[in-house]
Amino acid sequence: MLNSWPLAKDLQVLVEIVHSGSFSAAAATLGQTPAFVTKRIQILENTLATTLLNRSARGVALTESGQRCYEHALEILTQYQRLVDDVTQIKTRPEGMIRIGCSFGFGRSHIAPAITELMRNYPELQVHFELFDRQIDLVQDNIDLDIRINDEIP
Fold this sequence. Notes:
Layout: H1 8-20, H2 23-30, H3 34-48, E1 53-56, E2 59-62, H4 64-92, E3 96-103, H5 104-121, E4 125-132, E5 145-147
Parallel strand pairs: 3-4, 3-5
Antiparallel strand pairs: 1-2
Domain HTH lysR-type: 6-63
Organism: Shewanella xiamenensis
InterPro entries: LysR-type_TF_proteobact-type (IPR058163), LysR_HTH_N (IPR000847), LysR_subst-bd (IPR005119), WH-like_DNA-bd_sf (IPR036388), WH_DNA-bd_sf (IPR036390)
């Protein structure tokens, strides 16, 4: 039984060592020192209670455990990146309900096509679009945005 779970950054270090072929190249790619990379691999090996890499003057090679760890690390890091991307998109994607009012002619010819495109691009956004032939009260008519074309400013 493990005392703790491997950290994502340690798995990332292992993957980078495999991709680059050495501790020093991995350190350069990660913007870290070779000592940092060595320490993270030691921690990962201690956490998993196994040797992951055979080190020699000619470079590094994965052990059988290292190969399995590497394959799982690739999957885990891919899923982790998907998680981060998905969660951060929530903050940037418009969602919820917006109520838009507009005059008939301008609304039909210009605003309705724009709203169709808006809804296509942001499916989480719900748009209630209402055409009026009168001046409206935003609060009383429960409208968030009223678009009007007029010669006079009220």
